[in-house]
Design brief:
Blueprint: H1 2-32, H2 41-58, H3 86-94, H4 100-124, H5 129-141, H6 143-147, H7 152-174, H8 177-191, H9 196-215, H10 219-253, H11 262-266, H12 299-304, H13 324-335, H14 345-358, H15 364-372, H16 386-405, H17 414-438, H18 441-469, H19 473-491, H20 515-526, E1 535-539, H21 548-552, E2 555-556, H22 566-572, H23 596-600, E3 603-608, E4 625-629, E5 634-637, E6 645-648, E7 650-653, H24 656-662, E8 672-675, E9 691-698, E10 702-709, E11 713-720, E12 725-729, E13 732-734, E14 737-739, E15 743-748, E16 751-759, H25 761-773
Parallel strand pairs: 1-2, 1-3, 7-8
Antiparallel strand pairs: 3-5, 4-5, 6-11, 9-10, 10-16, 11-15, 12-13, 12-16, 14-15
């Protein structure tokens, strides 16, 4: 009997999965064909990470440390490095040069797998496959999943949530150990995404478990039955996630943002006016080429209605998931009372919870969540909850379609018909009122009219599908799938936020002929020397340029990442990125390109999108040499750049906090290294002596330097100091001193020595944990 049920269930699942695959491939074809590519963060942050990972694996190197950004960066602890993403790692392992299409395809693969998870969730409940197809399409091709394709990490978290939800439900319903272990694996992968969507997803999963227990006629007995497989799930998740989470927690504690203040987080809230885009897809012009966005926040909105003080991109509010969603949820769910059906009650509650979270400071709820819920204060954009909102909305809509196609939606009473019409009219009036207030009525007419046209088509499709369902479930499913896919394909077609020509990002290709990249590589090679490994700065050229060094394998002082080591951030004074010329700010320790710290970084080449004097007003004629003016940038040379490795005979003890506050003291960095304490066996402060240092080998996680000196002194390696690096001198362990407030130094005796620096993150994290627990 069980076998027959399983075969019947499978026969229902396969057509829905095939239809989903066909529709999904059609909607993803502009990207998968290479006609367009996913832009913005997908290219500025994530593509270079995959390229670095692939190049490292191809060269037989560890990808755990990247020397190419921020003067050195612990990749293994950074969620954006994608080291722990199974599909990205497989791509990097088998392709030394992953192209745009391949990396975009991985993003779509995650969404496709998540969509299959939604279908399987419906299958296990024996819900109509028409509802399953609608929910899967809405999940994978609508809402924030479609409008924010560039946010790779959040999309991966969303996909894991869909799969985990299906597996957790199986674990609970069947008290299955196998399902529990599988759920734990997926939940562990979800946890190591370490972004806001992942954290909220774990809360949703926990709520789902609690709801299952509470809805049972005998809750305590149900807890007892399901607890063993849930413990198995927790153990599997811990095995996968524990180490990456600890590494990231330690990185965050030493970073520029160990926590996010409430006011800063609130600036990432979803504006209530964005909710109108659940019905009118492009009301504010966010996805239209050649049209200025006029929704919140925008100059038009701020001038007409008032400053919102929000800091979100225009596509964050694009949460349209298909016209079928407001029709089914408002009509069947709200007006006809199906939202509180037992099968869907948890999703209704979760939808409200997630929406309140996304609205951020516009309701008191987020303030309470920020204060009470662990992990919330780590993130700066509550509007990211719209990803999860999209999944919950898809499940609820799919359930409503299931009820409709199975004939269990009661016919509307005259009062309910009037309520549905009133809701539609109220939404149109609200959209027009907003447009009138901003002075954009003419721009709003087309989205509102098209919304009503789509509503009419969707209502007709639902009516036809219900009649077809009496004869053929597959025909009804195909009809609704076609209408929903066409709706989403039209309203989420490639736009300036989701799909741009690949040629715009040609500079990211390892084999690019870009003149600026070619010039930088030529000049770096020209100045190569045994003691040198010069760095560059790429400032104000374009959004995708700051992490370009990861793609091409040269060393950049800066980069693009919301996280930076605290010492580095304070010393350089730079924010998340330097895509715009105004984003290159300076600090007292790094007050100008003509400064000691710039020289210590070995900053040889500076490429800027505008004349450098507009970025650094402290420069004087002759400080930098203009080498060329390319189509992208002005390229300058700093002739004062110091070598990467140096023998420094003397030292001075200083307070590093005071150093960062007051700037560099009167000290020659070639003769004196600044330390925060006098190491045992050190020569007298201010000592004199001669010595040389040369790089024997330089790999991602292993650097060997040969030093030769007449007397004792310090080998200075001008890479960022980090506690997970270890050193030995001629095979004997040696302490790595924090030098000049930022870099690494090792005390060496007279004579010739081989000094090895090795990055050992697991040992380093363990030692750091022990120190923290001991209060040191």
């Amino acid at each position: 009997m069980d076998r027959e049920v399983g075969q019947k269930s499978c026969s229902r699942w396969v057509p829905a999965a095939v239809l989903f695959a066909a529709a999904f491939l059609a909607l993803a074809s502009p990207w998968l064909s290479g006609r367009v590519t996913i832009p913005w963060d997908a290219k500025a942050q994530f593509l270079p990470q995959v390229q670095f990972l692939a190049a490292s694996l191809a060269e037989g190197q560890s990808p755990f440390w990247a020397p190419y950004v921020f003067a050195g960066w612990p990749q293994i602890a950074d969620p954006q490095a994608l080291i722990f993403s199974p599909l990205h790692f497989l791509l990097a392992a088998f392709t030394a040069d992953p192209g745009f299409r391949a990396v975009d395809a991985v993003t779509f693969a995650y969404l496709f797998l998540g969509g299959l998870g939604v279908i399987l969730f419906f299958r296990d409940r024996d819900w109509h496959m028409g509802g399953a197809l609608v929910a899967a399409l809405m999940f994978a091709c609508g809402g924030s999943a479609a409008s924010r394709l560039q946010h790779t990490g959040q999309l991966m978290s969303l996909a894991y949530l869909a799969l985990a939800l299906w597996l957790v439900a199986r674990t609970l319903e069947r008290a299955s150990w196998r399902a529990g272990l599988a759920a734990g694996v997926v939940a562990g992968l979800l946890a190591i995404e370490r972004d806001q969507v992942a954290v909220l997803s774990l809360y949703v999963l926990a709520g789902f478990v609690l709801a299952h227990w509470m809805q049972s006629p005998r809750p305590l007995r149900r807890v007892k039955q399901t607890l063993p497989p849930l413990v198995a799930a927790a153990c599997a998740a811990a095995v996968i996630a524990a180490v990456p989470l600890v590494l990231t927690a330690l990185l965050a504690a030493d970073s520029n943002r160990p926590a996010i203040a409430y006011a800063m987080a609130g600036r990432g809230s979803l504006h209530p006016a964005h909710l109108l885009m659940l019905v009118f897809a492009n009301l504010y012009g966010a996805s239209m080429f050649g049209m200025d966005f006029w929704g919140p926040p925008s100059p038009a909105w701020d001038q007409a209605i008032g400053e919102t003080d929000l800091f979100i991109a225009q596509n964050v509010g694009q949460i349209y998931a298909g016209m079928i969603a407001p029709i089914a949820v408002l009509g069947f769910g709200f007006v006809r009372g199906l939202m509180w059906s037992r099968e869907i009650r948890f999703f209704t509650i979760a939808l409200v919870f997630v929406l309140l979270y996304a609205l951020g400071w516009y309701t008191p709820a987020f303030r309470a969540m920020y204060a009470v819920m662990p992990g919330v204060d780590l993130f700066r954009r509550p509007a990211d909850a719209t990803f999860i909102f999209g999944l919950l909305l898809a499940v609820i809509t799919g359930y409503m379609v299931h009820r409709w196609l199975t004939g269990t939606v009661a016919a509307a009473t005259p009062r309910q018909r009037a309520a549905e019409a009133a809701l539609a009219l109220a939404l149109a009036i609200a959209a027009l009122a907003v447009a009138f207030a901003v002075g954009m009525v003419r721009a709003a007419v087309a989205p509102i009219v098209s919304g009503f046209v789509l509503a009419a088509i969707t209502v007709a499709a639902l009516a036809a599908a219900r009649r077809l369902a009496l004869r053929s479930a597959l025909a009804a499913t195909a009809l609704l799938g076609l209408v929903v896919a066409a709706d989403l394909g039209w309203n989420h077609a490639p736009n300036e936020s989701t799909g741009l020509p690949p040629s715009l990002y040609d500079a990211l290709r390892p084999g690019t002929a870009n003149p600026t990249v070619a010039l930088l590589k030529e000049k770096l090679a020209k100045h190569a020397a045994p003691d040198r490994r010069d760095r560059v700065e790429l400032v104000g050229i374009g959004y995708h340029w700051p992490n370009l060094s990861l793609s091409h394998g040269f060393d950049h002082v800066l980069g693009h990442n919301p996280l930076r080591l605290r010492d580095f951030a304070q010393a350089t004074g730079v924010g998340d990125t330097v895509a715009g010329p105004d984003q290159r700010t300076f600090a007292l320790l790094f007050p100008s390109y003509r400064s000691t710290l710039a020289d210590l970084f070995g900053l040889r080449l500076i490429a800027t999108g505008v004349p450098v004097e507009r970025i650094d007003s402290a420069l004087k004629p002759g400080d930098l040499t203009l080498l060329a003016r390319t189509a992208d940038a002005y390229v300058y040379e700093n002739p004062h750049a110091l070598p990467r490795v140096m023998f420094v005979p003397g030292f001075r003890v200083v307070d590093f906090d005071e150093l960062r506050r007051a700037g560099w003291p009167d000290a020659d960095p070639r003769k004196t290294v600044l330390l925060d304490h006098a190491p045992a066996g050190a020569p007298a402060p201010g000592g004199e002596g001669e010595g040389t240092a040369r790089i024997v080998s330089y790999a991602n996680t292993d650097v060997v330097v040969e030093v030769d000196s007449r007397g004792a002194g310090f080998l200075l390696l001008n890479d960022v100091w980090h506690p997970w690096w270890y050193a030995d001198i001629d095979g004997a362990p040696a302490e790595i001193l924090k030098a000049n407030g930022l870099f690494r130094a090792v005390l060496v005796g007279p004579g010739r020595h081989s000094v090895r620096f090795a990055f050992r993150p697991f040992r380093g994290a363990w030692d750091e944990l022990r120190r923290r627990l001991a209060g040191r």
